[in-house]
Amino acid sequence: MNLKLKALKKSLWVYHVSAGSCNNCDIEILDLLTPRFDVERFGIVLVGSPRHADVLLCTGIVNKKCVERVKEVYEQTPKPCVVVAIGACACSGGIFRDGYQMAGPLNKIIPVDVYIPGCPPKPEAIIAGIVKFLKEIK
Amino acid sequence: MEELKKVIVPIGPYHPLLEEPEYFQLFCDGEEVVDVEWIAGYNHRGIEKLAESKHWDQVTFLVERICGICSTSHPFAYCNAVEDLAQIEIPERAKYIRSIIGELERLHSHLLWIGLAGHFLGYNTVFMWAWKYREGILDMFEMITGNRNHYAMFRIGGVRRNIEDEDIPILKKTLSEVEGKIKMLTEAVIDDPVLSARLKGVGILNKEDIKNYGAVGPIARASGVDIDVRKDDPYAAYNLVDWKMITTNNGDVFDKAVVRLLECFESIKIINQSLDRIKGTKGEIWKEVREIPKGEGIGRHEAPRGEVFHYIRSDGRASSPIRHKIRAPSYVNIPTFKASCIGETISDVCIILAGVDPCYCCTERIAVYDKEKKKKVYSFEDLVKKSIEKTEKIKKEIGKESKLWKKLF
Amino acid sequence: MIEKLREKLGEKIKEINISNKKRIYITIDSKDLKDVIKTIFYEMGARYQIVTGIENFNNFELLYHFSFDKEDGIIVSVKTFIEKERPEIESLIDIIPGISYIEREIWELLGINFIGHTNLKHFLLREDWQEGLYPLRKGVKKDGRT
Ligand code: SF4
Q1: Is the residue at A1 inside a domain?
Q2: pLDDT tens figures, B272-293
Q3: Inside any domain, residue B231
Q4: Is residue C37 a contact partner of residue C8, using CB atoms and an 8 Å limit?
Q5: What is the ipTM of this complex?
Q6: Which ligand 1 atom minimizes the distance to the CA of A95?
Q7: Which of C25, C70, C102 sits opposite B232 (nearest CB)?
Q8: pTM of the model as a whole
Q9: How many domains does chain B have?
Q10: Residue B140 is assigned to a structural domain of this protein
Q11: A25 is in which domain, residue-wise?
């Protein structure tokens, strides 16, 4: 395993990108940090800038106004990074698939590594998804 | 002190208060804010147009996904609108169940707000507490509806799921636990000298402003305007149970917090009464609706943030609405910042904007611009930092007597 | 309520439609709009709710919704029609300051021009949105194509 990946796996710093979501996914992400789930015990920290992040947690359909911003955030993130699409919206467009503001889904805009479907996915599901992915990294 | 600053990092600048991620530009003169501009649309998904292509029944799911925090408010208002159009009277049991779901949502939404407000002021423990107690309510939701958010409980003519008798004692037990916690929070917040110093007299809205901007909900009630759709135009079971409307007179951020906290107790009262009434009784929970006639209907619901308004028009032939207008409460509440922010200092703006409980996801996109240089000088993170610094200062001065302070440290 | 409206507005009401006792729809001429709104908003003390814009077969329709909270929660909707050829109407921004954003939205999504509005810029859509493409018009499909 190369050194960069090893370092990445140790303590994930996540940045949360919301691009046209209904905010329920975003609440569930924040829920992860609060006492019941408390992912900080695993070294997972939400950071304030993509430049510090290892993981991008993306929610929402990526509407036409957000496209550039999402790309920009992705470019600013140091590589290697993990992009996680959270929620039906980010995975496929969900119920908004046919709308006129739809520019996504996320994998049309930036490369996605992990998909966590659900509307919204439960916090447990988000943890499970990320853990699964970490096990896969070699 | 250092400790406290460190805790802030994990929450980050993205806050899930959103409905739409929004973008504010504050034009400042030194420390003072002289103008504010709001740019929205980062979350615009074209729901009004999509609703015109979905079946009447599917629209309930679509409008549920407008906002995650008020995810029953929109279906509630939509069902009210269709029932107004088609003149449907829903069964009594459905009325109670609707009210229960609506009030549970108010509880979780207000707790969420209190947590975030605490975070903005540098009381991160309040944030963690409030969100922890909120989990209890989400558990109740999961028990009744099968999902933590996006409950899919509403349908035209009633509700989709019943509340079973054997669940009621468990629900009541959880509720009384939550009530105890909210009591503790309320006492801590209301008597706290630091919070009073920080929030009293900040971001005042008077009655005139409320009327001009058409503001609704806790914001209006904190300024002494006693409007509440649940009382003024009763629907569901709100006129069958006993509760009162909370109003205060100062219109500052402190009053907004007080209104929200006290409203929690009224909600608990409504839920308890409703649970008692449906316990041991049987009855229909929904009515079959076969046809939506031609016409137009208006439905509203008092969401946690204020009145949700849905206008719907049907031509009597198509299986979907031909026009569906949705107005969320934040749409009229956010513009009030024009009245409340201007003339305040930058360190207060953060909490004033948060005091509206705007449904915006990226408060992060607030950027402060220096008007002459047109250059970005503060990011939202800096704003939060400034706000926290100010609280720290006040804490040092009067913190020792603070009840909240004693509980926290 | 209906009597009160009749008394205050008199001739200006062209049609009253009562769908049930809490929902009143009145139709007026678009040139009377300002007077009518002034009367309802200032004299009768209604609360401004929102404006709905609709495209019909041969005209546009605007509905201004007002709520009388302390009078049984009656909602009065003021209806006015605009010709398709000339989609213009007076802006009410000097009567109700809060109306500014919704007028901008209707301009953007439905293509109705509000005379007197100083800030008709793109609000929800992108700055470089295709000129003349108004997503809420019936000719436009839900995915934004014509
Ligand atoms: S997946 Fe569902 S919960 Fe998540 S943003 Fe989309 S609509 Fe909201």
Answers
A1: no
A2: 999 988 887 888 888 888 888 8
A3: yes
A4: no
A5: 0.88
A6: 7
A7: C70
A8: 0.86
A9: 2
A10: yes
A11: 6-136
